[in-house]
């Protein structure tokens, strides 16, 4: 039988029951990182770093609500240092990660780690509350899925699902007819292809949040154009791809 030479060499194929499954070799060995654990260290750092990017303004305090195994083993596995490192903007491969507590103190950042529960959440889940210098409180919930992979599941009360591996556009809006049409029109006019789009809303006709994962970069000029549309409250782009390189 002829071999399929088109298959990427970093993909393993195996059979589970009657179903063929594919996994990346990076799901097995994990990312390049400072240890000891891809879930409790690399994933935690990525979660907090992504949350910092979402907050996008200075903050002086962070409260980490730890769920499941995060709460039980966060000191021994270095999850506390990883979360603080991510909040400071350090990547998973940064050697300063081990000194994150000292670096946070030098930066004047206050923090606390407390037990928490998020219904139905993955066992490695954290609720991060950022207290900004402007007086706002921003809450981001996410989970570490293993191998350094993460999933952001809630932002400021809006349920969502994105892993921060693609350019992601977050748009907060009033739930009015035509808003989605206007957003997608601006993206189409700027030749930005939509890979995934999801809408979360608190109630019909109330506030809503659109999450768009794009196939290419989204310039700040495009973000400003979307932010200037009718019924748009806020728009921002989350681009954490540099961390993956």
Describe this structure in words.
With 245 residues, the protein is α+β, with helices and mostly antiparallel strands. The chain folds into two domains: 29-162, 60s Ribosomal Protein L30, Chain: A (2-Layer Sandwich), CATH 3.30.1330.90; 167-239, Alpha-Beta Plaits (2-Layer Sandwich), CATH 3.30.70.260. It contains seven helices and twelve strands. It has helices spanning 25-29, 38-55, 68-73, 79-87, 100-106, 179-189, 220-227, and strands at residues 11-16, 19-24, 59-67, 110-115, 125-132, 137-146, 149-155, 158-162, 167-174, 194-201, 207-214, 232-238. The strands form three sheets. Strands 4-3-5-6-7-8 form a six-stranded mixed β-sheet. It has a four-stranded antiparallel β-sheet with strand order 10-11-9-12, sandwiched between helices. Strands 1-2 form a two-stranded antiparallel ribbon. Strand 1 and strand 2 (19-24) form a beta hairpin.
Low-confidence stretches: 1-36
Number of domains: 2
Helix content: 25-40%
Sheet having the most strands: 6 strands, mixed
Q: Give the tally of β-strands.
A: 12
Which CATH first-tier class of the largest domain would you pick? Alpha Beta
Class inferred from helices and paired strands: alpha+beta
Assigned CATH superfamily of the largest domain? D-3-phosphoglycerate dehydrogenase, domain 3
Task: Please state the CA-atom Rg, rounded to the nearest Å.
Answer: 19 Å
Gross geometry: globular
Beta-strand content: 35-45%
Mean pLDDT, to the nearest integer, reads 85
User: In what order do the strands lie side by side in the largest sheet?
Assistant: 4-3-5-6-7-8
Query: What do we call the CATH topology of the largest domain?
Result: 60s Ribosomal Protein L30, Chain: A
Cα distance spanning the termini: 36 Å
Reading the helices and strands in chain order gives EEHHEHHHEEEEEEHEEHE
Tally of alpha and pi helices? 7
CATH architecture of the largest domain: 2-Layer Sandwich
